[in-house]
Amino acid sequence: MSRDEMSRRRPRSPPPVPPLDDDNLLSEILLRLPPDPSSLPRASLVSKRWLGLISDPGFSARFRLHHRGNPPLLGFFDPFYFLPTMDPPNRVPNGRFSLCPDGEDWGGIFMPMGSRHGLLLIFHLSRKLLLVSDPFNVDQHRLAVPPGFDLEKAPVSGAVFRAAGDIRHFQVVLVTTETDEQQHTRVIARVYSSETGGWGDCISTPLPSKLPTKSRVDFTIGVLVGHCLYWLLNDRSATSDILDGILEFDLERQILAVKPVPVDIPKKNMCQFQVMRAEGGGLGILFLSNFSAQLWKMETDSDGVASWVLGRTVELDKLLSLNTEEGESLVIQGFAEYNNVVFLRTHTNLFTIQLESLQFKKIFRPNIMTRYHPFESVYAAGTGIGGGHDGAELLRNT
Prior knowledge:
Radius of gyration: 25 Å
Number of strands: 25
Largest sheet: 5 strands, antiparallel
């Protein structure tokens, strides 16, 4: 048999599949689209096949997990009405979010405790319940507050989060302080798991002896840095709040600790401080000094000794064109941990500032008594991701 005959009889390999005709490869490409609300709705308009891939529940879960560490800042609650901040076509429609399940009128007094991973944590003071709310799907979980967390005796703070790789279950951490008859004060914490449906054992640590016995966990919103949650501690025995330290809860080791604050900064006026993720990672703190922002970072030397180091100083009066001669002042009113965006209030305006790029936006005339609660989450209208079902309305704003 000749070589030509053998070549003609040899089975030919099928031609390679074009990359975009391979569903698995196309899904990987779509997975890496930006998590902006308009990204997937736009992609779903390409073809029915693309829409089918994007609408698949498995893809929805993977998309949320892939972008958990870089969710967009959709807006904020003021404190219970959602106000979008993104520009079209990514602006979430007004009235999209609701905190009341099925239109139920809860009434009473609410205290927001922050949000994370698409969930809001709310303390219902009147009913002594914790509400874990998914504002996209109007879904709410109601948790009984465990013993020892009585707001009439001591302030209570908390945080909600999902474990790495998990989009079904969530955990809640509550922290407070308690003082015994000998006036010894300790910080206590308990963790709720939706997977087990119950609260874990009490975790505690004594306050350092140098701290006043009347120190309490401050109401500022907890910040997640790495695998640790952080809150500010303040002394309420003085005429004005004084910063005492930073409370750390290690989620992996399930232990509490109190970290010192930089010694070179004044400790008065809690509205001048914000715990944050430092540039390059690790624990940081933002301190407002007159019309400048000092960005501090905790570093550890070769001997394992941790200390605070001043990084950058940002002149906010020049950045925001503030008139310092007319009695203006700056107050921290909120912080978005994943986007590293701080909410700053003056007497007349509310600004958001991204601390790396220093890009800022003037939002509106602020409510002086309100603390704003940023909401960062992956949301894709019209695809079922994050509960989005209003893709047409979103794209009409393009």
